[in-house]
Amino acid sequence: MNTQTTAVTQDEHTTWLEELRFWSNELNFYEKVLLQLIGFPRVEEHADELEKYEDRFKDMRDRLEDIGDHLNNTNADDFTREKVRATEKDFRQLKDDFYKFSDKIDK
């Protein structure tokens, strides 16, 4: 591997670790919002959806931890690159879904 390729790979690796920390912090925020929503009036009618988001957040937390462990034990490669991109896409979808759901409850 030449020096330029190594530098790009190290930069990617560092960027991915930073993104994982950011996503983890965002997930902490959404988990707190979920707990607040549980205290809203009329929440009983949304109990199944609240539980679904609780499970989805836990699954995403596990996924972020798995990728973090993978990044700490390997160099950046195409497999890692695809794993991070897929996780980013899924995280964005989770956020979008949760925004819509929380707006529905808040009304």
Detailed description of the structure:
- The longest helix is centred in the N-terminal third of the chain and has 36 residues, at 3-38.
- The chain has one domain.
- The model has no long low-confidence stretch (mean pLDDT 86).
- The chain has helices at 3-38, 47-72, 78-106.
- It is built from three helices and no strands.
- With 107 residues, it is mostly helical.
- Helix 2 (47-72) runs antiparallel to helix 3 (78-106).
- It is elongated and about 50 Å long.
Secondary structure: elements and pairs:
Blueprint: H1 3-38, H2 47-72, H3 78-106
Helix pairs in contact: 1-2, 1-3, 2-3
Radius of gyration (CA) equals 17 Å
Tell me the count of domains: 1
- Major sheet: none
Sheet-strand content, in percent, reads under 5%
- The number of helical runs is 3
Helix percent reads: over 70%
Q: Globular, elongated, flat, extended or rod-shaped: what is the shape?
A: elongated
Q: Could you tell me the number of beta strands?
A: 0
Distance between the termini: 56 Å
What are the segments in which pLDDT stays under 50 over at least 5 consecutive residues?
Answer: none
> Which structural class fits the helix and strand makeup?
mainly alpha
User: In terms of quaternary structure, what is this?
Assistant: single chain
Q: What string gives the helices and strands in order?
A: HHH
